[in-house]
Hints:
CATH class: Alpha Beta
Distance between the termini: 42 Å
Helix content: 25-40%
Number of helices: 7
Strand content: 25-35%
Number of strands: 13
CATH superfamily: Fumarylacetoacetase-like, C-terminal domain
Amino acid sequence: MLTDEIHKEIAAKIYHCINEITPMSLLTTAYPDIEIGDSYRIQNYVVASFKEAGSRVKGYKIGLTSKAVQQLVGSTEPNLSPLLDHMFAAEESELARSNWLTPVVESEMAFIIKDRLTGPGVNVADVIRATDFVLPAIEIADFRVARAPGMDARDITADMGAAGGVVLGVNAFSLNDIDILSVKSSLIINEEERAKGMASEVLGNPIVAVAWLANKLSESGTALEPGDVILSGAMHNAQPVEAGDQIIARFDNGLGEIKLSFS
Length: 263
């Protein structure tokens, strides 16, 4: 484990890089002994800096929700990061590409929590009871820590899980009224389908991902609270975006589509 002084130093660098939209080198290169526990402590300090600047936590994102991605970054489980209120944009927004370093977009299912959910021991039934409704969503991910050979889960987790932005759809469904495992999404960029996938590709079931999140948060004494927005994980491979791109995430099962553009 790194010292708390080093945690704070790294967090200050990451906070600076997020605000100034500048990259930084791999943490695992500069600090080869860094552990995933260090990464979460660093992340907590980054979030604290944003809170001091006036932001508030509005929910959480779950990352590394496929076995293939976990193997790629040397992890045996997903990771998590808080979502801050300033990250959210309205559907059909035109967003400045220059607000991110190397943005990528993903289709996801978002869970809106209505009842406090705290682990350990949270299961699928608990998540269903505690969820108000689900929505389609687009996540914008961005990496401040360099996407270089050797990057792994420790780098990504410290870097706020690469959280960059969230756009929520408007068609809401109770989990009792939708077969979430059958939900499909296609990502269309400039009228070309770039990726497609299913909700079942998220840990086999995105509800399982939310249960994992609640249980993981409980290790630090945190719970999911009413109103929290949870991005449950990517339904397909992330796709890069550039200025001028027109994005449509199209979902079936009545969930509709989400549009946004980058200028």
